[in-house]
Specification:
By secondary structure, the protein is mainly alpha-helical. The chain has helices spanning 9-22, 26-39, 47-51, 68-83. The chain is 58% helix and 0% strand. The longest helix has 16 residues, at 68-83.
């Protein structure tokens, strides 16, 4: 099967240089690279799995969601008080 791949100029230049250094064709290098990439397990992590390391590391007021309006009002009043 023949496939066309569009590469940015710097990447194509690097690929051509590496192929020349190793005495390999571009097709051979790309086949090897795709084989190595596809041999890795697919990453299908959930949002929880991606953030698992940071969950619970930071804490704040337990009632933050319940009292958000009054806390925002306090912040707003403090901010406006400093301007006057």
């Amino acid at each position: 099967m023949t496939t066309t791949v569009k590469l940015p100029d710097p990447l194509e230049k690097s690929l051509r240089q590496r192929c020349a250094q190793e005495g390999r064709s571009i097709s051979e290098v790309m086949r090897d690279a795709l084989t190595a990439y596809l041999a890795q397990p697919a990453v299908t992590a959930s949002a929880f799995a991606l953030g698992e390391g940071v969950f619970g590391r930071f804490s704040g007021p337990m009632d933050l969601a319940q009292n958000r309006k009054s806390q925002l009002l306090d912040v707003w009043e403090d901010k406006q008080g400093r301007r006057t």
